[in-house]
Amino acid sequence: MADADPLTVYNRKRDFTRTKEPAGKRGRSGGNSFIVQKHDATRLHYDFRLEMDGVLKSWAVTRGPSIDPADKRLAVRTEDHPLSYASFEGTIPKGEYGGGTVMLWDEGTWEPIPGKSARDLEKGHLHFILHGHRMKGEWLLIRLKPRSGEKRENWLLRKIEDSYAGAGDDLVARELTSIRSGRTMGQIAAQAPPISLKGKKGKSFDAAMTQAQKATPVRASRKRVTGKPPAFRAPQLATLVDAVPSGNSWIHEIKYDGYRCVISVAGKQVRVFTRTGLDWADRFAPLAAELAAMNLPPALIDGEIVAMGADGNPDFSTLQQVLKGEADGALHLFAFDLLELDGQDLTSLPNVARKEKLAALMGDGMPQIHFADHVVGAGEKLFRAMCDAGQEGIISKRADAPYRGVRTKNWLKVKCTRRQEFVIIGWTASGASGRALRNILLAQNGEEGLVYAGKVGTGFNARNSEDLVRSLKARARKTPALTVPRSETRGAQWVRPDLVAEIAFAEFTGSNVVRHGSFLGLREDKAAKDVSREKPMATPETQTDVRISNRDRLIFPEAKITKGQLADYYAAAGAIMLPWVAHRPISLVRCPQGRAKKCFFQKHDSGSFGDHVMHVPIREKDGGDEDYLYIDDVDGLLACVQMGTIEFHGWGSRVEDVERPDRLVIDLDPDEGLDFGDVKKAARDIRRTLDDIGLTSFAMLSGGKGVHVVVPLTPDAQWPQVKDFADRFARALAAAEPDRFTATMSKAKRKGRIFIDWLRNQRGATAVLPYVVRARENAPVAAPITWDELEDIERPGAFTIADLDQLIERAGSRELRGWGEASQTLPDY
């Protein structure tokens, strides 16, 4: 028989003279709150709690909630908790039930979806909506059929596909602080702001971290944004071409059917500029409000604002109606480029590097704010899909190109149907009942002024024609603004040529007028003087200026891989490598005769690499300057390969400011006798320790012997601070578990241990960069992975040069989107 008091089990398990958890008292029914508590007990998990019948129904989600609908997270039903538990954050003493640190990770309200009830929980199937800070939208809890001997109910928690879903977005890895206090798990454990991991690893670890406790608090993730929104910049424009460019040096995006905009933001301050620099934040007020709610640092973002038509696709006519208040519907922003961030000009970076930073900045966005995904290569496939879906086409961009505020061939547009802007020069009235407008007369700018371009008589309806006629009558003039064929003038009423219309049409006739045209709407964001005829150009071929000699020379004898094949790999992989290798001082591992022969490091250039390899002067210890190597495009990669380079290793800082690192790398280098499973476990434990002090980290297979734990940083601290932090962090771990770790490079000290190589985090030191081929047997590749993937990977060289297509596909996946990017700083000193 069930207990009359649903909190009997809760109270029986706890000694309230030892724990600060609240005693269980049933509350009033009728509330609809929910909370999630990150709980570092015997095993780290997330306690998901829904208010029902005056208590919190509870589940332990072992890996935390995921906003990827493909993830089905195990949720073990636990005892009901009192409503007062919703405010509990702190430490449960060791030895007590659930002993460990508890963080308030999310909170809000919940409701069953329309037509459903909270009573569905008893049936083992609860479909509900969350209104939290981090968990939002539709979710599903499903009870699994019990197995023999199971004492607890096992459920699955899953996100339902909606505007809040994000495939591959690791929500729990991204959100590391309390929703209430902004504290990390380490700070909560210490019961104070200073960094402390006391009680987590034993007395030796406590002693080793004493010095670290003198640091001031980790900055909360919800810090107040300072600074002004950046000034407007003219957007880059695309050139119309007749076919999709081929090759992996191009990335491809959907061509959104809306208004181009440049977003200038700093916290609550938001400006929404048109392509001509007009601030339309008031017209796009709902989007401006969502951008303000994201509390972004000062940034300048390029994107497109759209409204969805009845078929769910972006539709320009619908956008016009929504802006005029003639139709209901949400506006959406698709962001596809990042020009400035935190005062740094990013326009000189490769396109793919800017997009990586944009993906990290946007996170999971907001209901109407989205990151515009792209694919590497495979442009023709995307183009066919867009045309089949009735969309406008695609934009193809050179992966390694900088941003230029003019029209260039580095951005190309390929359209499914022909669409251009035209200037309206006149109109004719309709004699049909209920229709005011028969057609409009069009022109475009030529070399000597406006040139007639024909008539359009479809695309009008009662709603848009009434407004259009009103605008046309207000611009009436007696004569046409250009020479119009006499046959076209019958019944025409002429207007001042300053209205711009978007027209879809089949083709231009031999007389250079449109055939089968249809009116889509007016373009308020474009000036009549800028409207000229777009003629599709031949698609530019992707060519490199670097010639690879001796292509048949064997570089990897055991795998029969030649110099030419290595060059082809780097040419194809350039689009996924450039975010990490471009604009960073590099050291090269050169093996002119192949990997099995003599290899050497090189970081300076005597002039033999050619014009595609750049130099940055860096001050040496003796006070003099030395030129270090760096590259900024695929040609730079190939120029290095031509000179016998296999590996690329990079500084932890960029050439724009070499004294301020933008990442920290913890290289786990195991002794020869250790199993890779030991390294994987060490990497996961280090990730968890970094989580505790509020630092997001990423995993990368080194392609050598171990794993790199990569901690991205906002370039704020200088090298001495980063080195000191890495030193103390590594030595603390080694002191806590001396039989497992060492922070000393000595071979003798590594016996049976994993060397935590913190020395890569000092000025002048380098680490292998993502997607670099290693000069090792079978040409393994340093490959970014997700933390979930690490569990099943059997060796650090799991990916090789032969996996090029898979590596490119993985790099463009939502699972790895934003890999290696996070806005965070080390604890202040």
Automatic annotation (TrEMBL):
UniProt KW DNA repair keyword: yes
Alphabetized PROSITE patterns for the sequence: DNA_LIGASE_A3
Residue intervals of the ATP-dependent DNA ligase family profile domain: 324-415
Entry keyword Nucleotidyltransferase: yes
InterPro entries reported in the protein's UniProt record: DNA_ligase_ATP-dep_C, DNA_ligase_ATP-dep_cent, LigD_ligase_dom, LigD_PE_domain, LigD_pol_dom, NA-bd_OB-fold, NHEJ_ligase_prk, NHEJ_LigD
Keywords: ATP-binding, DNA damage, DNA recombination, DNA repair, DNA-binding, DNA-directed DNA polymerase, Exonuclease, Hydrolase, Ligase, Manganese, Metal-binding, Multifunctional enzyme, Nuclease, Nucleotide-binding, Nucleotidyltransferase, Transferase
Pfam families for the chain: DNA_ligase_A_C, DNA_ligase_A_M, LigD_N, LigD_Prim-Pol
Regions annotated as coiled coil: none
EC number: 6.5.1.1
Cofactor(s) essential for the protein: Mn(2+)
GO molecular function term, any single one: DNA ligase (ATP) activity
Record region (Disordered): 12-33
Basic and acidic residues compositional bias, start-end: 12-24
CDD domains linked: Adenylation_DNA_ligase_LigD_LigC (cd07906), OBF_DNA_ligase_LigD (cd07971), PaeLigD_Pol_like (cd04862)
SUPFAM superfamilies found in the cross-reference section: DNA ligase/mRNA capping enzyme, catalytic domain, Nucleic acid-binding proteins
Gene Ontology BP, a term: DNA repair
Name of the protein in question: DNA ligase (ATP)
Native source species: Sphingobium vermicomposti
Organismal lineage: Bacteria, Pseudomonadati, Pseudomonadota, Alphaproteobacteria, Sphingomonadales
